[in-house]
Design a protein that fits this description.
Structural class: alpha/beta
Largest sheet: 5 strands, parallel
CATH superfamily of the largest domain: Response regulator
CATH architecture of the largest domain: 3-Layer(aba) Sandwich
Strand content: 15-25%
Number of strands: 12
Number of domains: 2
Order of helices and strands: EHEHEHEHEHEEEEHEHHHEE
CATH topology of the largest domain: Rossmann fold
Strand order of the largest sheet: 2-1-3-4-5
């Protein structure tokens, strides 16, 4: 049973989210402070964090940085900050999804389930697939990827983005297509923020990031490496 840590300073919201998540079959830990959330990352690491950015003791973005430093724990951000710039900032820091207040608890549950599904890897069979004469290697059953022999530590959204473009190398994917493939549903207002995840993924590719994942102006993105012949 996956464990979700809910970090929310408003008790009523915290308890409503607990009830909805538990009804969905998830184990739930809750806290109202950023300091306690950071402590729990070490003492009881969760499978996913639902994080309110407006915490009373520690800025939520600082907690988000701590979560990212702790490993590949997925994060769904809750905030009253609805401006696009704030969404982009949260995604640049590594958030996997973003929900603005007020929200439906049922929507949060769906977002959490979608992110956990991506974190667990897509159902796949067979052997690892390589691209660009072995430069890029993706092992979906093991949920592992490497470039030039260097393993990449990817967030669930970055993994979903990589496997989406790798499904059809050299094909251009629009932002709208990537949102639907990575998220699994339409997400109004998210198309522009997909750029933040592309930027983060390229950073993990290293100096050759823009050569591996190419921007096609006015259209979207494509993986430039050809899939290798399995033989």
């Amino acid at each position: 049973m996956p464990t979700v840590l809910v970090v929310e300073d408003e008790r009523d919201i915290r308890e409503v989210l607990r009830r909805y998540l538990e009804r969905a079959g998830l184990s739930v830990l809750t806290t109202g402070t950023g300091a306690e959330a950071i402590r729990l990352l070490t003492s009881a690491p969760p499978d996913l964090v639902v994080l309110d950015l407006g915490l009373p003791d520690v800025d939520g973005t600082d907690v988000l940085r701590e979560v990212r430093a702790a490993g590949s724990i997925p994060v769904v951000v809750l905030t009253a900050r609805s401006a696009l710039e704030d969404r982009i900032r949260g995604l640049q820091l590594g958030a996997d999804d973003y929900v603005t207040k007020p929200f439906s608890p049922h929507e949060v549950v769906l977002r959490v389930q979608a992110v956990l599904h991506r974190a667990g890897g897509l159902e796949a069979s067979g052997h690892p697939v390589s691209y660009g004469e072995g430069r890029l290697r993706i092992d979906e059953p093991r949920h592992e990827a490497s470039l030039d022999g260097r393993p990449m530590d990817l967030t669930p959204t970055e993994w979903g983005l990589l496997t989406a473009v790798a499904a059809a190398p050299e094909r251009v994917f629009s932002r709208y297509e990537l949102v639907n493939r990575v998220r699994g549903y339409e997400y109004a207002g998210y198309e522009r923020t997909i750029d933040s995840h592309v930027k983060n993924l390229r950073r993990k590719f290293g100096p050759s990031g823009t050569d591996v994942l190419e921007t096609v102006l006015g259209v979207g993105y494509r993986l430039r490496l050809r899939r290798d012949d399995p033989r």
